[in-house]
Specification:
Number of strands: 13
Radius of gyration: 26 Å
Number of helices: 8
Distance between the termini: 84 Å
Strand order of the largest sheet: 3-4-5-8-7-6-13
CATH superfamily of the largest domain: Chorismate lyase-like
CATH topology of the largest domain: Chorismate lyase
Largest sheet: 7 strands, mixed
């Protein structure tokens, strides 16, 4: 009688087991997405859910806590748990969304200029140094599919222990450019996102009309002791970038992909002038 052999180096596949509380989260999420529970509807009681899913109250409450944290349901003392309606105030955006499309095409980072200059009063205040202290001033342009897309200006505290050539090589990589001019992961950062109107210089570089709208990402990078290391701005062409997010539960189709309601920023709430 012949022996049954298994392919070398391969183990038998095991089914993936989903924890009961996650199974409850997924089920209720799908009911919310499909309209079984509509906004404002009162959900079944804890006792009814426990009986339906065959779990303890502790397991059920763990699932309900996750759904509450996701903003899908809310509990009202003495009244029960309800499906939450859409709330624009819950919108959350990621900067990766704004620049993610750069990685879908041909991208080039051009170094426009790099020099060591004396800090102006304004830059000295940003970097917490004395006016006139040395800073490294770098200007770069990100070109996407032969079109100028992002104009970046950066002021870095001068450090004689860090060669300028190393700083420039790191900063002209796309990965380094979208993180810091030093190409390192810094422990602290302050990011400000706002609308702006392009000044003459920035408009010329980005090949846009003067005063054209743009998305401004201002960054201040700090070390472990919260001392400023670099300050700068990314100016993104408004006709090439948009921020989108999803609100409410996600409806999954038959192959598991998600169909989301997209929102887009269309009107700037605050406008500044940028050169």
């Amino acid at each position: 009688m012949g022996a049954t052999c298994k392919p070398a180096g391969r183990s038998a596949l095991r089914p993936v087991t989903v924890p009961p509380y996650l199974g409850i989260v997924n089920t209720i999420s799908q009911r919310l997405a499909s309209g079984v529970y509509e906004a404002g509807d009162r959900l079944p009681s804890e006792a009814e859910f426990c009986e339906e899913f065959g779990v303890s109250r502790m397991t059920l409450r763990k699932a309900l806590t996750i759904l509450t944290d996701q903003g899908l349901i809310s509990a009202k003392k003495g009244k029960g748990t309800f499906a939450r309606p859409f709330d624009l105030g819950d919108s959350v955006f990621s900067l990766k969304q704004a620049v993610g499309r750069l990685f879908d095409g041909r991208v080039e980072v051009q170094l426009l200029s790099a020099s060591t200059i004396g800090a102006s009063r304004w830059i000295a205040n940003k970097l917490d140094i004395d006016q006139g202290d040395k800073v490294v001033y770098i200007r770069q342009l990100v070109v996407h599919e032969d079109s100028p897309a992002i104009y970046h200006r950066d002021y870095v505290r001068y450090d004689p222990r860090r060669p300028l050539v190393e700083l420039l090589l790191r900063s002209t990589s796309l990965y380094g450019l979208l993180q810091t001019s030093q190409g390192e992961s810094l422990p602290h950062a302050q990011i400000t996102l706002r609308a702006c109107a392009l000044g003459a210089t920035a408009a010329r570089i980005l090949q846009r009309p003067s005063r054209a709208p743009a998305l401004c990402i201002e960054h201040l990078f700090l070390d472990a002791d919260h001392h400023p290391l670099a300050w700068g701005r990314f100016l993104l062409r408004s006709d090439m970038f948009a921020l989108r997010t999803s609100l409410g539960p996600v409806q999954k189709d038959s192959i598991g992909d998600s169909t989301r309601l997209q929102t887009r920023t269309t009107r700037p709430l605050r406008c500044i002038s940028e050169v």
